[in-house]
Amino acid sequence: MPRLLIIEDEDAIRRVLKKILSEEEKNYNIDEAEDGLIGIELIKKNSYDLVLCDIKMPKMDGMEVLSACQKLQPELPVIMISGHGDLETAVETMRMGAFDYISKPPDLNRLLNTVRIALDHTQLAQENKQLKKKVSKQFEMVGKSEELDQIKSMINKVAPTEARVLITGENGTGKELVAHWLHEKSNRNKGPFIEVNCAAIPSELIESELFGHVKGAFTSANKDRAGKFEAANGGTIFLDEIGDMSLSAQAKVLRALQENRVQRVGSDKDIKVDVRVIAATNKNLKEEINERNFREDLYHRLAVIIIHVPALKDRRADIPELIHHFTEKIAKEQGTKPKVFEAKAVSLLEKLNWTGNIRELRNVVERLIILGDQQITEDDVKKFVQLKTS
């Protein structure tokens, strides 16, 4: 039920506003305040979806109320109510962040339309906030080991800067999660996060994928196409498995990092981009440099900060919490009640040699949930998991 607050010192206007809104939508929960000070106290105590506020009031005028609202609840839409002599002030409140203004006496259709639009705005803002929380939850880094705490500490220090980051580690350790959190905790988190798996794209197509192409640049180029660097403008581009990138593409990435410009394949026109680059690899890039498979100058451009994600066998303290996390997640996906792993089963899983890292652990947990009973026992682990201890 949407909750509205009317702040108006004239009783007659308050009654008219409440009557119009109540008759139109009986599900509105409407509070009243006869001056700005009372209105602000109500906003401090309650959660409102919309405020309608008079401009000229004793004790605290509408401009002051609007300013206070923006500090208390920045996303709360405020519709200003103005007399004929207040129109210039009403326009000024719009510059200050008011959602809209309505003249006295209020026009029925104008009032109702403005309120509906403002409430839709509130609902959309709440949905976006919930969606962002879901996205954050999706890329949660689970565990309390010392190794994971060090990674989280580095992310908190590095994310707010513009420093480029190289994430290293074996396949399945969670390098992608680190990249997502670097973006989420950065000043670019409202911009796009564009991921490119360099190992999954054929070498002859990687340049087009990264930098785009113009029509006719090659046989299948039927129209102009923007690349991932352009798509990431204002945000972050994550170059996963960058050790598999061709040398020619590496040269163009180096130029993009040096000049903040890219050229589409088949064009000589520069396109300016504002992108933060995060890269990841499971390879030893210094060895790749020695074997002339990776450019040393690009390595030094990318590796301003290096974050190493340890293998699961090097952070075994996180395994019990990861098992619980995956159990809850899988049960939610399957619409079933979460199963319970007995302590001996968890203890045995902690001892295994997880060559596939967290990705392998997740698969094993799902297998045990599908094949085991309501309680997963040590015998289930011995029966359904290949027991290779390190």
TrEMBL record:
Ranges where the Response regulatory domain occurs: 3-119
SUPFAM superfamilies recorded: CheY-like (SSF52172), P-loop containing nucleoside triphosphate hydrolases (SSF52540)
Protein's UniProt keywords contain ATP-binding: yes
Domain (Sigma-54 factor interaction) ranges: 141-370
Superkingdom of origin: Bacteria
InterPro entries for this protein: AAA+_ATPase, AAA_lid_NorR, CheY-like_superfamily, P-loop_NTPase, Sig_transdc_resp-reg_receiver, Sigma_54_int, Sigma_54_int_dom_ATP-bd_2
Keywords of the record: ATP-binding, Nucleotide-binding, Phosphoprotein
UniProt entry tagged with the keyword Cell inner membrane: no
Modified residues (4-aspartylphosphate): 54
UniProt xrefs under PANTHER family: TRANSCRIPTIONAL REGULATORY PROTEIN
Protein name: Sigma-54 dependent transcriptional regulator
Species the sequence originates in: Psychroflexus longus
